[in-house]
Structure formats: C-alpha cells, structure tokens
Amino acid sequence: MSKTNINQHETIFSCFVRAGTSTLALNCTNNRLIAAGQQNFQLFSIESIDNIEQFKEIHDFRNAPRQPAISRYAFQPKDVSWNPNDENCFATVSGTSGYLYIWDATRLITIDQLNIHNTIINRLQFHPKHPNLLLTASQDGYAKLIDFRINNVDKVITSFRHSSKEGFRDIDINISNTHKFASVINDQYSVPIWDIRQPTQPDFSIVTRDKVLCIAWNPHEHFWLATGGIGGHDRTIRIWDGKGNDSRQEPLFTVYTFGQVTKLSWRPTCRYHIACFTRTADPRIHVWDIRRPYLPQASFCHHRNDIEDFLWRPNSDNIISVGRDERLIHAHISSAVQSEQIVSIFSLNVTSKGSIYISMPNIDNDYVRSLYNEQHIPLSSSNLRILYSQETLSTFLKWDKIIKGESILGIYSNTLHDNSIQLFHQFARRWIFGNGDKSLIALANICDINSTVSEDLNRPDLKATWQVIKMLYVDYDALQNYRTYSSKTSQSITISHHISDSISNHRYHYHQPGRKLTIIDKQRQDNRSYDELTDEKRIQLQEQRILTNSKLEMIDDTETYIVRDVLTDDIIFITPEDVLNYGNANDMSYDNDIDLGLRRDSLSIPLIFNEPLPLTNTDGDCNKFSLNRITRQLTEVIILDDDDEMRHENEYDR
C-alpha cells in the first residue's frame, strides 16, 4: 500500500485489488467502499491512521464461507448501490441473472434476494429521498420500482416499458426532482424522461445525435442532463435541457472528447465541470469545463492501464478510481495534470516556400470583456494563463455560455516572391541542363550554376533543391582532395561565411592575371551579368543581404571550426584558437554581428506585424512593438474561429 502524507483534503493513497474489478460504490458516510466485478467482491474501509488516510480491506466476499441458500452468482456483481440513508445497507445485481441481492455490511451477509427480472439487470439505484424505494433497469425491456415495505414476493410496485421494447441500459434519478428519472434504451437515438407517477409512457424524449451509453443529471443545475454517445462518429458529451418539452432541441453545451464516452460524473464542487473516461486505450480520467469544450481542464494520470470505474467523493474534489492495472486510487484534483500548464499558447509552422504561419489566442472576445466588466480580474491584467486558468473559470460562474474558440492567424511571406511568366522565362533562359556529359563534374557544374541563378532570382527553395541534388550525386572523394590541398595554405582565423556558399562553390572568385578563363568561369560571368534586375527594390535587397565592410574568405577545412550562431543570412565560425584566446565563446563580439540579442528574444514572439500591435510574450503579457526593420515580409492577419474553415494553403503562398 502506498500513501502520501500531505493535507488530508488532498491525500493521495492507493492499494491493490483483485483482477476483474469493474464497479465502485461508496456509502453515504464516505467510510465504506465496495470494489466488485465478475471476479472480485471486496469491502474496504477508508480510515485515517496517524493523520494519513488509507484503504483497509474489511472483507473479501468471494473467499469467505458462503451462505447455503445464496447462489454463487451473487458474488459476481455487475452493479452495486448503497442505501443513501443507511450506511450499512447496499444492493447488488448479478451479471448472469435477474436476481437482486440486499446485503448487511455489518454482518457481511445477504438479508434478502429477489427475482425481479427475466434476464440480467444492467443498473440499479436507490431513491435519493425514500430509502425503501429502489429502481432497476434490465435487459428484458423493463425498468421496475421496488418498495421493500411491501410483503409480496417481488415487491414491485411500478413497471416501465419503452415502446420499442428494447432493454434499459442505464437510469439516473434526478436528485432535485426525484419523481423524474432519465433512461438509456438500447439502439435508440433518444433519451426518455419518465415520471414514476405515470409509468405508461415517458413524459418526453430528448432526440440525440447518436446512440447513448451513459447519462448523468447535474446536481447543481437541476435540469441539465449529460449524455455520452457510443456511435461510430460520436465522441462527445452533450448537455441538454431536461425540463422542457422540446424533443428536437439543440444541446446547451457540446464537449469533444478523445473517444466514445463510457461513464460520466459531475464534479460536486463546480457546476460546469464533468469527468469522464472513454472506451479507447486511455488510462486517464479527464475533467472538462463544458464552457471550454476543446481541451480538458485537468487529467488524472495515476493509472497505468485502462480505467474501469470512478466516482467523486461527495462535496469534495477527490476521485476514487479503479483500473485494469488492479489498483484502487484515491486522488485530489490538485494532483491531476492541468492542461493550462502543459499546452502551448502559440503554434508556428513554416511552408516550403518560406511563408511563416503563427496562431495565437484572440483575447478580444465576449468572455474576456465580461471578465473585465464584472471586475472579476483587474483591467490591467492581460495574462492569457490567468484569463483561461482553472481558478478563473471555476470562480467566474456568471459566464454560462460556451467560450468560442477564436485565434489570430498571422502570416508573413517574402514580398519579392514572384510566380509570374517573366520569372519563368528567366529560369528557362538561364538554367542549364548540360550537353550530354554524364560525369559527376558536369553534374556539379549544372547544380552550381542553377543554384546561383535561383539565388539571384530570389528563390531559396529552388536553390536548396539544386544543392541537395549535388550533395546526393556528386562524388565527394574528388572534392576531398581539393579540401586537403587548400587546407594546407589557409589560415585558421575567425571569419564570416555566407550561408548560401557551399564548400566546393563560392560566390566570390578573384581572377588571377595571366590565367586563361575557363569555360566554367565564362559561363558564371555571363549568368551574373545576364538580365540583371536594376529596380530600386533589387538594390535594397542586395544591400541587406551583404553586410557592409564584411570580409569574406573561403573556408576549406570546416572540420577545424565550430559553429557559434546560425542567423538568417550568415554562419559565424570560430577556431579552437579563438576559444582559447577569448575564454568563453559566448562572450565574443563581432563587427558583423547584427542585433543577436533581439533576434534570439524574438524567436518566442510572433514576428508577423510591421505595425505596432498588441501581442503576447511567453509570460502571456501584452506588449507593443514594431518590426519595420524586417522589410522582406508581407503582413497578413486573419481572425479564425471554430466555425470557419481554412482555405487552401496555396492561397497564402502567392
């Protein structure tokens, strides 16, 4: 048994149970717990020993001597329910017959057994106010109300039958209006609401989107009914108005879960929070705020295998759960993983054509304005983590609508990107594809020239394509001899090398007097002078890309260098000798180092605007700043909400 000695209201403790445990039930005084299933039937107490709460097994019914008149199926409970007014009385039903068994938790024996249904009973529930009444739901197509004060054989006073004659899968009595109960009928796309005083037909039915597996009335909002679907495409929790007569109503709230919902349970201390687990292979119990339906508020991650059942302790934030890992765990919600602490506020992506997409929450919405108007948070606060935190949502109870999911999508792209026919013609005239020579040297020449042309025409994606082709197919053994020869005559000094230059193809060549120009040299000169762009924007671009007064020199032996920083346009190399001379390479300064600190800080900020605009930094606080110095970027801002569909991404890559 493991336990943690912390605040008693937030205690985490656990113990092992027998395999096959699939249902839990807690008595009205919160000190007795049944853990049962097809292969298990155990009674536990929850005791405080040395100010530490823990589970203690009181009795194992399956391994104890059995009463002669009791069938062995009585020790394979499918469902358990405690009497809400008697802490020592509980009822069970078998998973193989229609018998109902009444137990005494003090004497640990059955005090009554009743043959109520013709086949298995799926669910049973004691009446919240009348301890002598119990409601059952069976696969034989009937729900029956039992009064233990009656002296007849089966003690049934009322029977309910749906017009479809299908079996009852689940029932739940409304705790505030105890004359009403909701039911789940097999293979039906509706939830009938019954009045126990009029058993002939339901009061009305709520038409759902898909088949329903489980239901739960809200204990705070007395007519909110939650349903969990099991259809092939229905992975939602829907909240309905259970007091109206509109069978075709739209749900009040819709929560999008991770799988088909198996069980629902409302959080006792917050009317907007509901917990569930799903049929998928997910060992977590998720707590959702129905007003923020796309992300769980918290997730209990204490189990190592699928969840079988769970329940909330009354008037607390503690959950008791059991899983297929054969562990019974008691945990406080403070031990659950809070989504707000692990989910990124921003999202960023880069396309192959150089466009950058950044999304961030839009705080200009009705929910945030209502927070300010009600003075729930200070007007000066704009921290996103505070606006949408669990504490804020749990205490701001006046907001009873869905928080609409809206985001700002920022796009910035290269303003000089041109897909015109003229650009296509320039590529067609200036690119070369060889004269039939299939040697690696000829291929290297083709890649070098076409890469230079692509760079001149401002297409870095095509330039990178030619460089990759060269890397994949050129024989590096021939180039290695050139590196070895050149490294003997070069000095290891700190230099700045343009990122677009490759080891075997440098953009800056100096002609030696007396040396005859080769065919390659002539071709390179012709391509550099052919169709030069002379407009003012082209000149400004070149001035930005080539740093003034920069000293450029070839690097032939890159193995003796280490990379310090990678910027947008340059790579700065440092020799081992420089590290020894300066001590710490991170403290070294360079003439060509343009605003490194600003660039690093800006990596975590959405760099998408050329005009001052309220944005959010990593702490969630809004600031204003301008990015006018980034002149090669086109700003576009789009407001997205959960009802809009994204257009084709090529529309933003123009």
Automatic annotation (TrEMBL):
<dbReference type="InterPro" id="IPR036322">
    <property type="entry name" value="WD40_repeat_dom_sf"/>
</dbReference>
<dbReference type="InterPro" id="IPR001680">
    <property type="entry name" value="WD40_rpt"/>
</dbReference>
<dbReference type="GO" id="GO:0016239">
    <property type="term" value="P:positive regulation of macroautophagy"/>
</dbReference>
<dbReference type="GO" id="GO:1904263">
    <property type="term" value="P:positive regulation of TORC1 signaling"/>
</dbReference>
<dbReference type="Pfam" id="PF00400">
    <property type="entry name" value="WD40"/>
</dbReference>
<dbReference type="InterPro" id="IPR037590">
    <property type="entry name" value="WDR24"/>
</dbReference>
<dbReference type="GO" id="GO:0005829">
    <property type="term" value="C:cytosol"/>
</dbReference>
<comment type="similarity">
    <text>Belongs to the WD repeat WDR24 family.</text>
</comment>
<keyword id="KW-0853">WD repeat</keyword>
<protein>
    <recommendedName>
        <fullName>GATOR2 complex protein WDR24</fullName>
    </recommendedName>
</protein>
<dbReference type="GO" id="GO:0061700">
    <property type="term" value="C:GATOR2 complex"/>
</dbReference>
<dbReference type="InterPro" id="IPR015943">
    <property type="entry name" value="WD40/YVTN_repeat-like_dom_sf"/>
</dbReference>
<dbReference type="GO" id="GO:0005774">
    <property type="term" value="C:vacuolar membrane"/>
</dbReference>
<keyword id="KW-0677">Repeat</keyword>
